[in-house]
Amino acid sequence: EIDxxxxxxxxxxxxxxxxxVEAVASRVGGEPARWDIREVGDxxxxxVFIVSGDVGSVVVKQALPYVxxxxxSWPLPIYRAHFEYYALVRQAKRAPGIAPEVYYFDKPQALFxxxxxxxxxxxRRKLIAGERVAQLGETIGQFCAxxxxxxxxLSLSSPEKKQDVGLFSGNVxxxxxxxxxxxxxxxxxxxxxxxxxxxxxxxxELRRNARLKAKVQRLLMKFTANTETMLHxxxxxxxxxxxDTDVRVIDPEFSQYGPMAFDLGMxxxxxxxxxxxxxxxRQESELAAYQTWILDVIEACFTSFDAEFRHLWQTERxxxxxxxxxxxxxxxxxxxxxxxxxxxxRLDALAYCGIEMHRRVLSLAHxxxxxxxxxxxxxxxxxxxxxxMGQALIMExxxxxxxxxxxxxxxxxx
Length: 414
Ligand code: ADP
Ligand code: MG
Ligand code: MG
Ligand code: MG
What we know:
Layout: H1 14-18, H2 22-28, E1 36-39, E2 47-52, E3 57-62, E4 66-67, E5 71-75, H3 80-94, E6 102-106, E7 111-115, E8 121-122, H4 123-129, H5 136-150, H6 158-168, H7 173-184, H8 200-208, H9 210-225, E9 229-230, E10 240-242, E11 247-249, E12 257-258, H10 262-281, H11 284-315, H12 324-328, H13 335-362, H14 368-371, H15 376-395, H16 403-413
Antiparallel strand pairs: 1-2, 2-3, 3-7, 4-5, 6-7, 8-10, 9-12, 10-11
Helix pairs in contact: 4-10, 5-11, 7-9, 10-11, 10-13, 10-15, 11-13, 13-15
The structure holds adenosine-5'-diphosphate and magnesium ion (3 copies).
Adenosine-5'-diphosphate binds near residues 48, 100, 116 and 238.
């Protein structure tokens, strides 16, 4: 149900509607009528405005009651913005300094006001342009570890966790999108799918693989039924903004409680897709060095996830799970249990990674890394490598849990 007072913002009505909101007016400054207002939403779903004045700038994001990239024929409840706001607030606590700071939330209007990230740009654009970002893998790995650990019963009390799972279970429309677009549609001729025609032989073979489909559905079962931690839920390279030295994560509107490995796997998949698309975007002379840098980012992402998770395990295990007293009474160490859990997360992350690699070239929402390759034959060739590596990761993640084996696999397909 849309609140009867809900109205979508526009550049024309913006200063009239938000001019009196202190959180905006004080940070933007000057006469609202003279504010510079730009709608910059390049995503698939929402309105995003940058508003600037004498003092500074803020960003206003408002949910639309339909899927923007498709149109009003695909309605989508605006209350998803409430969950994006709840997720941003939790991320700020669990992984400080990474999500944009939120200044104001208007529930009936399904909008919130946040920090303007500047001069940050979308990471996907940087990866296509061949730019490097310092500490990229480290920051994303650490972000995933902190949010995974601190949003779970390793950290939270039982009532606190259950209450939050209850809250987020109200976000009923969003998970269905991930369940179909990410996990299911790539593996059959779903209505909204599209792919590069030259890729068809590879796609046909993938869709004949019944064991693959079954494995993916088992991972979907974990994704739907498991509430281990609060996920970002959409941690692709279009949800990361960066400068040369600073990394931030935006857009958690697909947030839900789910398996600890999911965000890590999706982030790594997007690094791998950047890797596989590079031959279309780089000069031969720069290609090898840049691809090596991307592989280093992936390695750092996994390594820092593990290091940070282990650190939190040792220093912040205050929740329901693996209580210290249970182990310490007999002088047992819980370190092996942590290592075993990390092994399991690694393998699940690799499998989720494979699925994300598939859906971005086979399902509805593709990514610019491949989509902007104009020559369809070259696009199909690079997409095929990506699809085949994704399949290997889903079918046999245990073969690539060792990072050097994972790196060798990526190189073997490129
Ligand atoms: P959607 O949910 O529709 O995908 P996003 O939250 O991804 O919307 O935002 C769309 C675009 O708006 C981003 O790609 C980015 O360019 C810009 N943007 C979003 N949030 C910010 C921010 N806090 N600071 C600067 N730019 C932002
Ligand atoms: Mg987005
Ligand atoms: Mg395509
Ligand atoms: Mg979004």
